[in-house]
TrEMBL record:
Its EC number is 1.1.1.18, 1.1.1.369. Homotetramer. InterPro entries: Gfo-Idh-MocA_inositol_DH, Gfo/Idh/MocA-like_OxRdtase_C, Gfo/Idh/MocA-like_OxRdtase_N, MI/DCI_dehydrogenase, NAD(P)-bd_dom_sf. Belongs to the Gfo/Idh/MocA family. Transmembrane segments: none annotated. It catalyses: myo-inositol + NAD(+) = scyllo-inosose + NADH + H(+); 1D-chiro-inositol + NAD(+) = scyllo-inosine + NADH + H(+). Involved in the oxidation of myo-inositol (MI) and D-chiro-inositol (DCI) to 2-keto-myo-inositol (2KMI or 2-inosose) and 1-keto-D-chiro-inositol (1KDCI), respectively. Pathway: Polyol metabolism; myo-inositol degradation into acetyl-CoA; acetyl-CoA from myo-inositol: step 1/7. It holds the Pfam family GFO_IDH_MocA. The gene is iolG. This is Inositol 2-dehydrogenase/D-chiro-inositol 3-dehydrogenase.
Length: 335
């Protein structure tokens, strides 16, 4: 039985605690912490024997905690990951791995010093059945080489404090990971464009933005990033290959026929849209720790590659130019 401590008791922290308790076999959440102690106390009160720590650092070093799940806000990720690696503990960190590529490099240095993997990054889309089937078809070669990806990432709205850069570093970071995974390719250059702005966002951040990427093999990717669309949580992805295309399926929904129309609901929350992917992701994580003694899901290198692209995109804003996406040499541990 793997004893887990969770740092961050907000939306996804609570959701992961629920699934680690009710769905995922072979583990239990024994501790939690949150910047607002009250949030952690409220969560712990719902689960028997769950201990609350005042700080994330105390939780990481608690002797009963064997693995740490980081679900606190983006700026806190790198510090907690480094602390967990210092303690030699397994760590699952929600995306993004860090706020910039430089912090990811520190994490890579800390993990490679151990000589084995301890960290997995929460790029759960790799565990979604739709994306997995798209990858299987692309990898089979039956459609020839992939040439282009057209994707879009639409959220209903954003909380206060959301900023333009987060449209890339927090939101499109999922596409930055899934596109290089689908194509088995790396990025060469990147540019973000501002387009005609939507009246749905009046809070000072750019919406929509278009993320453009070119890969090393010359494939082109465009991602519409709409962080306040006022209608639903809508994730689309089409990979165009030489001899055909593959599309991400829409989530299961019953079609209703009434009042002279056919209709089906569109989800509004990422929790529901990727519920199965999160379940599979964390089940796989716990299973591999138990069976192999280390994780095999998205690595520090994957977290880093996405952050390098995100940094280039955010630097490109307003320049009208594609900027190079340059990574350091890939350490042996991640090959
Ligand atoms: N993989 C996914 O699809 C997915 C989905 C949602 C969120 N996330 C990621 O998970 C993280 C949390 O997102 P959320 O939607 O739950 O946000 P949230 O705001 O609902 O929750 C964040 C929680 O972290 C706490 N917190 C903030 N700074 C902290 C610190 N330094 N130490 C301890 N606790 C701290 C806050 O008090 C809050 O309770 C974000 O990094 C986000 O990018 C990933
Ligand atoms: O933190 C969330 C989460 O990662 C969702 O999957 C994404 O769609 C949202 O845009 C983001 O804010």
């Amino acid at each position: 039985m793997l004893n887990i401590g969770v740092i961050g008791c907000g939306a996804i922290g609570r959701d992961h605690i629920r699934r680690l308790t009710d769905i995922v076999p072979g583990c239990q959440v024994v501790a939690c912490a949150d910047y607002f102690e009250e949030s952690a106390n409220k969560v712990a009160a719902q689960y028997e024997g769950m201990k609350v720590y005042k700080t994330g650092e105390e939780l990481i070093h608690a002797p009963e905690v064997q693995a740490v799940v980081i679900t606190s806000s983006d700026p806190s990720h790198a510090g907690y990951v480094l602390e967990a690696l210092k303690a030699g503990k397994f760590v699952f960190c929600e995306k993004p791995l860090a706020q910039n590529a430089g912090d990811c490099e520190k994490i890579i240095a800390a993990e490679t010093a151990h000589g084995r993997r301890l960290l997995q990054v929460g790029f759960m889309r790799r565990y979604d059945r739709g994306y997995a089937e798209m990858k299987r078809i692309i990898d089979s070669g039956e459609l020839g080489a992939p040439l282009m990806i057209h994707a879009c990432h639409r959220n209903v709205s954003q909380p206060d404090g959301f900023q333009t850069e987060m449209g890339v570093s927090n939101v499109a970071i999922h596409e930055l990971d899934i596109c290089r995974w689908l194509l088995g390719d790396e990025y060469e250059s990147a540019q973000v464009l501002k387009v005609r702005q939507s009246a749905c966002s009046t809070k000072g951040y750019d919406n929509p933005q278009i993320v453009l990427l070119e890969t090393k093999s010359g494939a082109r990717i465009d991602v519409e990033v709409q962080v306040a669309d006022a209608y639903g949580y809508d994730i689309q992805c089409q990979v165009v290959c030489e001899k055909g295309t593959v599309n991400l399926p829409d989530p299961y929904a019953v079609v209703k026929r009434a009042n002279a129309s056919r209709s089906f609901p569109i989800l509004t929350d990422w929790k529901d849209r990727f519920i199965e992917a999160y379940d599979i992701e964390l089940t796989h994580w716990v299973k591999t720790l138990e069976e192999k003694g280390e994780p095999d899901g998205p690595s520090a290198w994957d977290g880093y590659a996405a952050c390098v692209a995100a940094d280039a995109l955010n630097r490109s804003r307003g320049t009208g130019r594609f900027l190079p996406v340059e990574t350091m040499e890939k350490p042996e541990l991640y090959r």
